């Protein structure tokens, strides 16, 4: 019997949870705030879905109900992507070692 | 672009996201890690454009909206003061949540675009995935909005509780599950909209009973939810990058919540089910009899610290509120000139989000190798001359070690009282967020400095 592709995706999901578990435990506590802002930024990869939704109008009209939701989601995700990565960068720039 | 090729690229961007988190294991590698993250995101977006392959007018609009959102984001990122990071992160979580809801709605309205079947005949698995994604996204959105309002001070940080609250939440939760089941059978759009609406309500109900001091847990928890919402949408879209990212973010938030709960010695459910303070009123009222304290001024503090050989600084949320981090650094510089050894001790739940104090100290140019976590530094208090507690309270309360009746009993605390003398900067003797009196105020070796954290620190700098 053929394996449902869902099982493969589910395997990726479960394995990623384990990867996340070990990677996040190794994050130093002093960088927990940048960790939150960067996870925030990367979870905005949901923009992928938003782009598909926005470009998927099957008529000649660019703006129909489903694509409007896509465009709105693009704005929200874009705020997050740029805001998240840049604020993380700004924070990380401040972490300095003692000058000898 | 063929779907196999694009799937491979999505995997690569997923791996880059893992490396981005891996980089945060030390400040040296963290900046490089952030670039990996940015690269991963760029790959995901470009690959999506190529695989949709629709470069008509719509594409231009996509770019315009991307630039609009991006500029707003960049503007916020450069303008936001570091003390406002908790609100910012809560605000950003709400956007991820809402974006997840919008993508799910869009997929429900136009399933052909995502290869999910047709309207009224959407694949069963996809329907479950998208309604879960939408529900969790909606909870993340409204929950984060409440957290934002509480952190911003627009809404009171006090827990809002009413009778039967938990019963209502449970009932609504079960209703959502039932509605998803019903949606799968009928494909009715009304039920889909009902699920989304109810989920917005759940987010509000879930966060209002949680008090201000538990915000570190709430933010971490919402971080986790935003990840699970993304993963739900990732399953719907059959997109590896989204599934990997969702799982990473989900487990990251869950671990942070766990660390925060452990820092307060409370179970996760205890935090979720309602605020501190509400149940502790009786015990705080009982301890209201006046006990003698010693109080001093900036000159006393300056004298004590100047003649010490080692000083440990214990910052807390009060330092963030007073924006005292820069003044504090000046004070430390002056002390170092006098040959005093200075280090910083940070409690896991100091501040309003994980790592909040570390960022503020980094902003004030404090080198990160002078900043220590609770376990690393707690033994050093016994050999230290002066502990300077600025804006922290409950995390120094020795009652947590001695009084099994206390609500914070068992919580790991900084052993501040073991140092030869304690300088406690605080505006008044009022109890902290846990609503309990701090035994430390009445110790012989404690000198209370009643003032605003920033003003007092500046005055000490002057007299040094």
Any key phrases for this structure?
heterodimer, A: 100 residues, mainly alpha, B: 464 residues, alpha/beta, two-stranded antiparallel sheet, 18 helices
Describe this structure in words.
The complex is a heterodimer of chains A (100) and B (464). By secondary structure, chain A is mainly alpha-helical. Chain A contains four helices and no strands. Helix content of chain A is 72%, strand content 0%. In chain A, helix 2 (32-43) packs antiparallel against helix 4 (65-94) and helix 3 packs antiparallel against helix 4 (65-94). Chain A is flat, with a radius of gyration of 19 Å. Chain B has helices spanning 3-23, 27-52, 57-79, 85-109, 124-152, 165-186, 189-207, 215-237, 240-263, 268-272, 281-286, 298-306, 317-322, 325-337, 356-363, 374-377, 399-402, 453-463; strands at residues 117-118, 121-122, 310-315, 341-346, 371-373, 386-390, 421-426, 446-450. In chain B, the strands form two sheets. In chain B, strands 5-4-3-6-7-8 form a six-stranded parallel beta sheet. In chain B, strands 1-2 form a two-stranded antiparallel sheet. In chain B, helix 17 links the parallel strand 6 and strand 7. In chain B, helix 1 packs antiparallel against helix 2 and helix 1 (3-23) runs parallel beside helix 9. Residues 276-288 of chain B have low confidence and may be disordered. Chains A and B meet through helix 1, helix 2, helix 3 and helix 4 of A and helix 1, helix 2, helix 3, helix 4 and helix 8 of B.
